[in-house]
Amino acid sequence: MAKHFARGLFVLVALGLSGCAGFSPDTGMTVVSDLTSQTINKDVAFVRTADGAGVIDARVRQLLSRTLTAESAVQVALLNNKGLQAAYNELALAETDLVEQSLPPNPVFSISRISGNGASEIERQVVGDILALATLPFRSEIARDRFRQAQLRAALATLRLATDVRRTFVRAVAGNEMVALLTDAKATAESTAQLAVKLGETGSVNKLDQAREQVFYAETTADLAAARQAATSAREKLARLMGLWDDGLDFRLPNALPPLPRRPQALPSIEADAVAHRIDLQIARLELTALAKSLNLTEATRFVTLLDLAGISRRTQDPEGTPFRERGFDVQFQIPIFDGGEVRVRQAAETYNLAFNRLTERAVNVRSEARDAYRVYRSTYDIASHYQREIIPLRKIITEEMQLRFSSMQVDIFALLTEARQRLASLRGAIDARQNFFLAQSELQTAVNGGGAPASGGDNPTNIAAAAPADGGH
């Protein structure tokens, strides 16, 4: 009987070993690379060797040798950001968990010798966890789902970095454009303020008009200082996101934001696209699948929490020195007298229901976020286009007409300066409008593909994983 039982144990071990997972050559990065390429058409790389680091450095230097665009800045960040590399390290660690969960438990060997009163006993024992072997296929399947989640989380971290880079790039370039505009405005305001002082000395300008020109110059100076600070901070943040330091900090940015597209995008199925492509929803769906498998495993093992098989070989020597050997096996299990497993089953079921409701809520929110992002995108396009096609051309006409009237002495210099201040306000509004459009364009892409700010713990179903054991409580 013992012989057949032991043979069955070894067969079970062999079956378990046949389903073991091994380490993949790319540590799961193929999925991350494919998703990144399909979503934002960018390359990613997991740097693990000195040669690989050299190739990436050469690519980064090539991208930095030219004036950066939003797309090239994103590519530099995806290749060079060490925080993203750390996310890929977490993916590699997740693969080690997958391999570990697919391996059968190691048997425990023990040997003991007891002697006394002229007799001695040597006992050898091997212990294996039968329950762990029996649930190995379940645990392996759940571990594969967890690894798939880890791959999607790495892809989500990649998209989040790309989103942050685009936003920061837009703010940095818009900041440079605003600095250039206010620098010219400050020079003009300084000249007019000095002219007002001289005219005041001759009695041609009263104190009120002098004060108006002085305060305009002072306010423009303060606005320029604030714009420089914002542009510098945005550039510094962009450098951080791209992982640049030392010699890499002298990268070049455009002087102005690009022109608006000729027409806005038409996305009639944006809600369906968001639900189908959002990576955070894919992670939540996998989490729900893993929890369902955990629930099934919990129900299958609810009455047994520990079941060990011990194969025993005992060698005994009697007082007369005659040795003899004993063989057998020992089975230990916990009797569910007080807890029949109902608590763990209820916990698993409620955890699954919690994750299901959170996923449903998230899906509803994703549809709303997509609709709102598209409305903002269209409205910001209309506003920026209105500045570009209506307000700025009209301001140019007014300025030219005022200069003609000033030349013919039909208006005085203060009317001309008043128009200059109004034109400056329109130009600043136009820059802000274009900046808001390109930021909204980035938000629209994020709403469809994912990559926004992480959701709070209460709204993210993936954070519920810790509440449910992946192997049914074992």
List keywords for this structure.
disordered C terminus; about 475 residues; about 65% helix; four-stranded antiparallel sheet; alpha+beta
- The level of helicity is 55-70%
Report low-confidence residues grouped into runs of 5 or more. 1-19, 302-309, 455-474
Helix/strand/pairing class, anyone? Answer: alpha+beta
Number of helices, counting only DSSP H or I runs of 4 residues or more: 12
Taking all Cα atoms into account, the compactness measure Rg is 35 Å
Look at the structure and give the mean pLDDT: 80
Proportion of beta-strand residues = 5-15%
E-strand count? 4
Give an overview of the whole structure:
- This protein has a four-stranded antiparallel sheet with strand order 1-2-3-4.
- With 474 residues, it is of the alpha+beta class.
- The protein contains twelve helices and four strands.
Describe the protein's topology.
Layout: H1 2-18, H2 29-40, H3 50-64, H4 70-80, H5 82-101, E1 108-116, E2 119-129, H6 130-134, H7 136-202, H8 207-241, H9 270-277, H10 279-300, E3 307-317, E4 323-333, H11 342-407, H12 413-449
Helix pairs in contact: 2-7, 3-4, 4-7, 5-7, 7-8, 7-10, 7-12, 9-11, 10-11, 11-12
